[in-house]
Amino acid sequence: MDNIRSSIIDEVIRQFNEKGMKFTMDDISAALHISKKTIYKEFKDKDELFMETVDYGFSALKEKEAQIIADNSLELVEKISKLIVCLPDKYQNIDYRLIYQLKDKHPRIYEKFTSRIERDWKDTEKLIKEAMDNGLIRKVPMTIVKLMLEGSVEKFLGTDELTKARIDYEEALEGMIDIMLKGIETE
């Protein structure tokens, strides 16, 4: 991706964190000191810009996941945990709790975001199966594990409940994976 497109996408993310969906193309052009015409030369409209931002973010996520998988210093269960709560370094400051705003006003973008969450579980599934086979975690149907993970993430992103409870997204993911791996019983 060329530099101007990357700069625009990075600014979209910054604006989204700051204003939710209430930012404008004028906000982006002012922050980057470029004309709106330059933005529209790169992206035909705000929807295309958001669609590409979603793809860009998930590409960064896959790169981070590959680093975790390749990290031989991590134990298997630790890798699983890190994969599930994985956020790309570049996008760790995104307030994912604002994603629910897309649901009503930009349903296509929200659908793309949630469909990307539902895909690409192969590496995580492989590690979970390996951990089950090695007796590191209980054997349970992978379908249940996957539905629980997806359902939790979709609920975290699809409502403003985390914001109301003042729980950040990463904290919610860490709590979810802790409960999934260790249960809720005290020892």
Give a structural overview.
The protein is built from eleven helices and no strands. With 187 residues, the protein is mainly alpha-helical. Helix 1 (3-19) crosses helix 4 (46-70). It is elongated and about 60 Å long. The chain starts with a helix and ends in a 5-residue tail after the last helix.
Shape: elongated
State which percent range the strand residues make up. Answer: under 5%
- The rounded distance between the terminal residues' Cα atoms is 50 Å
Largest sheet: none
The count of strands amounts to 0
* Total of DSSP H or I helical runs spanning 4+ residues: 11
Helix content: over 70%
- Order of SSEs, N→C? HHHHHHHHHHH
Helical/strand content category: mainly alpha
Question: What is the typical, i.e. mean, pLDDT?
Answer: 87
Low-confidence stretches: none
Radius of gyration: 18 Å
Question: Could you provide a short overview of the structure?
Answer:
The protein is mainly α.
Helix and strand arrangement:
Blueprint: H1 3-19, H2 25-32, H3 36-42, H4 46-70, H5 76-84, H6 100-105, H7 107-118, H8 122-133, H9 142-158, H10 161-165, H11 169-182
Structural key phrases:
11 helices; elongated; mainly alpha; 187 residues; single chain; 71% helix
